[in-house]
Amino acid sequence: MMKKVLLFTLLIYPLLIIGQNNTKLAQTPPMGWNSWNKFGCDVSEKLIMEMADALVSSGMKDAGYEYVVIDDCWQVARDADGNIVPDKERFPSGMKALADYIHSKGLKFGLYSCAGTGTCQNRPGSYSYEEKDAKQYAEWGVDYLKYDWCNTEGLDPKVVYPKMSNALKATGRPIIFSMCEFGLSSPWYWAPGVAHLWRTTGDIQDCWDCKHDWGGKGWVLILDEQEGLEKFAGPGHWNDPDMLEVGNGKLTIKEYEAHFSFWCLLAAPLMAGNDIRNMSDTIKNILTNTQAIAVNQDAAGIQGSKILDEGSFEVWRKQLKGGDIAIILFNRGEKSIDIDIKWQKLGLGKSFSTRDLWKKADLGKTTGYTGQLEGHSVLFYRLKK
Ligand code: GLA
């Protein structure tokens, strides 16, 4: 008996506590802003502080965006003791001061590192420094770590990601762990419990369906790769189809609306990737569409999936808590098409009182949709039980 009590106190109880720290996080998909898509390596404390200010003044914070994440290139070296050294020219006040500033705005602070010996931009990686780095992040006040997969020759993601995950848990600070391993080892099978989110593909690009040899691609191609992954997502463990390109300039407003609609329907992390200090009202209205965001943040945490594929016309649905259904009618072709579709035929039910999430209008009771749908656009509806 004594042995059992001792075992519980020394071994099991601490594990339960550590586990709790971890599992309470990311009960809905994380929301925030990340520097990479727009700024690449051109990051500085000035930029990050301005972005935190803009998150508040634009209304994005009120809409739910919380994490301000500095991606690659904030780090330049390790000191003689192996501590990671931030770029002193670009971050003269240091990471603790920056974290304090971000926290003072009611926001949370995120950093980036890499499971390999170097980051994807060949800055020092965290391989073999996991505990040291995790402790350092916790001391600075880091709330979110994006952890990449470059310079990892010979390393096993199933070993090195848990290593950093455990090091973060051991700090006792609640830190969201975002794995960026491009889906290479099918992390959806093994990463729940290790990370709160894991990238499922190569890097998103600000285009419709372009494709680069090195793996970068447009959001429509990324969307196609999410099919079948829906069963692996849920509160505390999300598929990550990469950060948003909304507002980065290369797509039309309808195309950005479609991109945002799908990231909401997929229960994807909503990490804005544009210059939110200088965005148009149209872009701001996309990013702060609270009824679309409510679909993303729905407490049931169910990732939506495709229910009809007729070539350029697709229908996707996401089951919401309490019985409502979010639905996207998607024209992926360039030309406008005529649609005549009944909810019943899609297996959803006969009629629903319907909210158009982009028109922000109640459409009354509908039994389906008959009408045109422009090329490269969506209709995004909430069908109410
Ligand atoms: C990888 C990631 C990107 C970004 C860069 C930084 O390509 O997928 O999101 O973090 O590294 O170098």
Protein model, in words:
By secondary structure, the protein is of the alpha/beta class. It folds into two domains: about 10-295, Aldolase class I (TIM Barrel), CATH 3.20.20.70; about 305-385, Immunoglobulin-like, CATH 2.60.40. It is built from twelve helices and 18 strands. The protein has helices at about 1-25, 35-40, 45-55, 60-65, 95-105, 130-140, 155-170, 185-190, 220-225, 255-265, 280-285, 290-295; strands spanning about 30-35, 65-70, 75-80, 85, 110-115, 145-150, 175-180, 195-200, 240, 270, 305-310, 315-320, 325-330, 335-340, 350-355, 360-365, 370-375, 375-385. β15 (about 350-355) and β16 form a beta hairpin. α10 (about 255-265) packs parallel to α12. It is globular. Alpha-D-galactopyranose binds next to loops. Alpha-D-galactopyranose binds near residues 119 and 121.
Features:
alpha/beta; 8-stranded parallel sheet; Immunoglobulin-like; TIM Barrel; 6-stranded antiparallel sheet; binds alpha-D-galactopyranose; 385 residues; single chain; 23% strand; 18 strands; 12 helices
